[in-house]
Each structure stands twice: as C-alpha cells, then as structure tokens.
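Lab notebook, bench 4. We co-purified these components, and the gel suggests they stay together. Before we commit to crystallization screens, I want a quick structural picture of the whole thing.
Request: model the full complex, all chains together.
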Amino acid sequence: MTDQLSRVFAALADPTRRDMVARLSEGDHTVNDLAAPYDVSLQAVSKHLKVLEDAGLVTRTREAQRRPVHLEAEVFDLMTKWIERYRQQAEERFARLDAVLARMQDDDNPSYTEKEGTAS
Amino acid sequence: MTDQLSRVFAALADPTRRDMVARLSEGDHTVNDLAAPYDVSLQAVSKHLKVLEDAGLVTRTREAQRRPVHLEAEVFDLMTKWIERYRQQAEERFARLDAVLARMQDDDNPSYTEKEGTAS
DNA sequence: CGCGTTGTCAACCATCTGGTTGAACAACCT
DNA sequence: AGGTTGTTCAACCAGATGGTTGACAACGCG
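Here is the predicted assembly.
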C-alpha cells in the first residue's frame, strides 16, 4: 500500500475517520476537540489522525501547545479523477452495448417474428 | 466495517483490486482471464473478487462453466456523493476564510502598518 | 461415463489494523 | 522549578487482510 491513492482510500474506509473528515470540512479542530464525540482513547484518535495525515488528507500545524488539524481538500481530486475515469468508461461501454443490442434486435427480428421471441 | 461505503473504500484501497476494476470497465472478464496478469494464485484473485462483490462493485453471473465478472458502475456514485459533499463544504469554507482574512486585513492594517506585520 | 476446465472452499500463516494502557514530551502558567 | 494541559510514543493484544496450498464442486466434451 505504498501509493497515495491506496492510502487515501484506506484512510476513508474507516467510519470514524470519515466522520472526522466530515467535521474538519467545517473548520479546523484540535485533537482533543476531535476526540470528544468518540468513545475511544485520545491515543486512538491520534493514530487515526496519523493515518489521515499519511494519506495527505490533513495537515497539522503547531500553535502554542495545541496542534490544530486542517483538512486538505485537494487530495479528494485524486480519488474523484480515478473514479470518474472508470465510471465514464463503464458508462460508455453500456452505451455501446445498448447500441449493439439494438442492432441485433433489428437484424434478428425478421427470423423471430414467426415465433414469440420478441417478448422482453 | 458494516456499511457499504466503508466496504467500497476498503475494496479500492488495494492496487490489484483497483486494476481489476480498471480492466472490468472495458468489459466483462472471467476469473482466469482477470487473474492472468497478476503474479498471485487464482484463489487469491477469487478472494479479491469476493471483496469487490461484497462492496457491490461487481456481480458474477453463471454462463456455462464460466463465471463472468461484471462491473456495477452505480456504486461509484455513493463515493462521489460523499466526496463531493465534503470537498464542496471545505471549499466554501476556504472562500469564507478568504473573505474573513480580507476583512481582517482591511480592519487591522492601520495598526499593523507601524510594524512589518503585513509580510506574507 | 470419465475427464479436463473453471472456479470456490477450507485451513493455515505472516503482517496490518484499531484498540488498549502507561510513560514521555512540549508548551504554557504560575 | 513545578504543575497543568495537550499530544504523541511504546508495547501489547485481538481480529482482519492478503497470501499460500490442497481438496472438491460444477459444467461441457469426447
């Protein structure tokens, strides 16, 4: 799992981390702040943040003794690009398939009309 | 990891599985066919397909002794929706932040101009 | 019918993951 | 200097993951 795209997908595969991202999308938070709603230790949250950081989804700056966590939205584009690429490809294929099926139906209809083969 | 979104993200966190999806976006394949390029056992590929199937990304139908694997592109929408929601939210926040910073600069400039605080 | 082809199931193994607790570090406030 | 607050590091544990090999089920073909 060395490439960033894998790390991003893996990071978002965890519901707690997705929720953190959701909350961070509304503004920066400190670690304590982020941990509050979850029923796990602060250290567990710190680990989750490390996963998000390694994926490039968040950055942590230092501000006095706090370490505010900041969402980096650009990384989302990496995923969106990957997804859209293959989704579109698949959809184009469906379109072609539909066309082929339509042609087949046109070609074969004459021989089928003698039976009841045109039923859906 | 009970919810589908988690399963979809987790499924795509593996480079081999992403490559399978990429190839399936060009058309259906049999398991043997899919396994060919990878340097792993057929059973490992079968496991990967189970993960993709559990995520709802592919379906397998039976066709004689072959089991053609078919990509279900609709599930991508689940991810895209999630991603876009928070990306947009984050971007709107940036826009607001920019506006706030611009206002702050206007308000505070008079007091800062005495020092060299306006540096980037 | 028996046989090869195609693919899955089962058991096992090493490594990763998400959680825990306890200790440590860092920066601020007396 | 010492205490408080905020966060991370280290060691450990149970369960998931990705891989292996061996057995076997399902189907079409000669």
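Residues 1, 14, 16, 40-41, 43-44, 47-48, 51, 62, 64-66 of chain A lie near DNA strand C (CB under 10 Å from a C1'). Worth comparing against the SEC data before the next meeting. Residues 74-120 of chain A form one domain.
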